[in-house]
Amino acid sequence: MSKIAIVLKENHIDHTVLFKIKKVIDKSLQDIKQRIEGRNPLYIGLLFYNDHAVIATQLQELVDVLDDCQVLYWIYELDELSSDLEENQKISKEVLERILDWQVE
Asked: Where on the phi/psi map is residue 85: left (φ > 0), alpha (ψ -120 to 50), or beta?
């Protein structure tokens, strides 16, 4: 299991970006805004379960939207039982892509 969290570096973003994020993660606009303003994870995905392909696709689509809209973000690989965001849990986009590409056999 791998628990991936995406946190935005900015606490305010354009409404057009909010709508694009909403299409990917299927949360209310209010929830998305609260997460962004509070610097809480915008999305947390649990990988390597039966729905790995779905979660991996959502994570990749979210990163693509953020990149396309030039929104800065951090990616964390969290411990299974923890939601605390710590500096040593940050990973690069390249590491995330390797994780997402890995297929459960």
From this structure: beta
